[in-house]
């Protein structure tokens, strides 16, 4: 080769194969560099995030014990009690007493009851929507532990419908007007019925009910029984009146009542109630005379007085008396000319919250018959 004086040889241009080799080496190096990361990514286990837990929230819109049903705006409260009761009856002249209706006379009577109340409420633009269900089972004469739905009803605003206490014997608004202050409460015409009713109240303490009720539970023509209630309540107590029309009997009953709360003695009160019935139908007081007549046991007139005193924060007691003037023959408006009365003494002790020990004794007397004595001792755990 001929050399050029004083210069370097001219470089040879790279071959096409050399360029390919370089590209292959670079690509291989990059692949090897990312291979471990890719392999690790392929082997990774992806764990799904758990769904957020919705805890039960307290609902204070309707009082203590309510909580929101998760996922809804409905508030639920579950309550009830378990009660054991032992009592005795000495029936010399009657076959029934207010304390142990339907129990055998002249002996010990035992009873255990379990009750569960399920109360669901929700505020709506139409007022409060509410449903109420009571499950109950009683062991002892005359039942033996069969669980049943004792009450079930629905309400929206002031409208209520279902199977529950008749407005004739139910509590009037905030005042417990169901007979005397005791658990037995003597005789006041308590009963449960199919009904549809409207309730109204005002901020001034006025309360009223119009109730259409079915006593037969299976339909009896197209005319229901009708009950009307009106009451007025304040801090001193309250007054109320009731009227009930029994369509199947074509008769009516009426009642007026007064409760006076004792000043400076929380829980103590005096209660007076008067009753009238024009026959032996469902809108009277009933009485132990019904076991003799075969009917309801109504009298033309009846008067009830009861006083409850709260001695201490845990101990209270009451006395009650009820007089019946002129009993009706069973299921009729025929007067018998017989009178009667019943008296009671009740004591209650709540040594700890939600646990009650109660005792009651009752003496029942109807003209021409010997008196009857009944009583019990009960233990109740509420929740």
Approximately how much helix is present in the residues?
A: under 10%
The gyration radius over C-alpha positions equals 39 Å
Distance between the termini: 116 Å
Give the C-level CATH assignment.
Mainly Beta
Provide the structure class. mainly beta
CATH homology superfamily:
Porin
H/E element string? HEEEEEEEEEEEEEHEEEEE
Mind summarizing the main beta sheet?
A: 16 strands, antiparallel, barrel
> Given the C-alpha coordinates, what overall shape results?
globular
| Weakly predicted, low-confidence segments | 1-11, 37-41, 95-102
Mean pLDDT over the residues: 86
Q: What is the count of DSSP helices, taking H or I runs of 4+ residues? A: 2
Task: Please state how the strands of the largest beta sheet are arranged side by side.
Answer: 2-3-4-6-7-8-9-10-11-12-13-14-15-16-17-18
Q: What is the total tally of β strands?
A: 18
| Count of domains | 1
Organism: Nitratireductor arenosus
Keywords: Cell outer membrane, Ion transport, Membrane, Porin, Signal, Transmembrane, Transmembrane beta strand, Transport
Membrane topology: Multi-pass membrane protein
Family: Belongs to the alphaproteobacteria porin family.
């Amino acid at each position: 080769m001929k050399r050029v004086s004083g210069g370097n040889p001219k470089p040879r241009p790279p071959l096409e194969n050399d360029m390919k080799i370089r590209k292959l080496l670079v690509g291989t190096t990059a692949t090897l560099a990312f291979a471990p990361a890719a392999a690790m990514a392929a082997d990774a286990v992806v764990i799904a995030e758990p769904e957020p837990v919705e805890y039960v929230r307290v609902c204070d819109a309707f009082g203590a014990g309510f909580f929101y049903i998760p996922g809804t705006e409905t508030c639920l409260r579950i309550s009830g009690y378990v009660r054991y009761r032992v009592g005795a009856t000495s029936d010399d002249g009657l076959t029934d007493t207010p304390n142990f209706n339907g129990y055998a006379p002249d002996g010990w009577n035992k009873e255990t009851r379990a009750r569960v109340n399920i109360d669901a409420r929700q505020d709506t633009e139409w007022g409060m929507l509410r449903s109420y269900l009571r499950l109950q089972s009683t062991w002892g004469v005359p039942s033996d532990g069969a669980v049943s739905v004792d009450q079930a009803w629905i309400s929206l605003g002031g409208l209520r419908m279902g199977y529950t206490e008749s407005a004739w014997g139910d509590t009037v608004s905030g005042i417990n007007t169901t007979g005397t202050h005791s658990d037995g409460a003597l005789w006041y015409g308590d009963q449960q019925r199919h009904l549809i009713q409207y309730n109204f109240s005002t901020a001034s303490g006025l309360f009223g009910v119009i109730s259409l009720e079915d006593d037969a539970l299976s339909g009896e023509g197209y005319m229901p029984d009708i009950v009307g209630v009106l009451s007025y309540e304040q801090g001193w107590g309250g007054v109320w009146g009731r009227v009930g029309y029994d369509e199947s009997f074509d008769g009516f009953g009426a009642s007026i009542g007064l409760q006076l709360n004792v000043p400076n003695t929380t829980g103590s009160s005096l209660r007076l109630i008067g009753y009238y019935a024009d026959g032996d139908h469902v809108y009277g007081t009933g009485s132990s005379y019904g076991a003799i007549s075969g009917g309801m046991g109504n009298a033309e007139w009846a008067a009830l007085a009861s006083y409850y005193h709260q001695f201490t924060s845990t101990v209270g007691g009451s006395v009650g008396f009820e007089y019946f003037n002129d009993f009706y023959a069973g299921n009729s408006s025929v007067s018998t000319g017989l009178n009667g009365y019943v008296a009671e003494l009740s004591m209650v002790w709540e040594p700890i919250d939600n646990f009650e020990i109660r005792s009651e004794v009752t003496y029942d007397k109807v003209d021409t018959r010997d008196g009857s004595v009944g009583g019990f001792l009960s233990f109740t755990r509420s929740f």
